[in-house]
Amino acid sequence: MGSHSEGPSKAEELLGRIERSAGRVEERIGSKRGDDFAAIHGRVRRRRAEERLRPDEAETPNDQVDEGASDETGADH
């Protein structure tokens, strides 16, 4: 029983160490790269969304007025 009870506590201790180390690494990455990545990724998403909307907005009002775009919009999406 003595050696049996030592096994789980050693495993738990190792898991605790791993979790703490992983937490420290995540904090470092999160504070430096994670925030920067999120900011850059957000900008890229906005640019892509704007690029997608601009041509559609420029073309669809003319097309939709003539063609009745409710059918086209439904088919595209």
TrEMBL record:
The biased composition feature labelled Acidic residues covers 58-70
Q: Where is the composition biased (Basic and acidic residues)?
A: 7-38, 48-57
Q: Which domain of life is it from?
A: Bacteria
Quick one: where's region Disordered?
1-77
Q: What is this protein called?
A: CsbD family protein
Q: Which organism is it from?
A: Leucobacter tardus
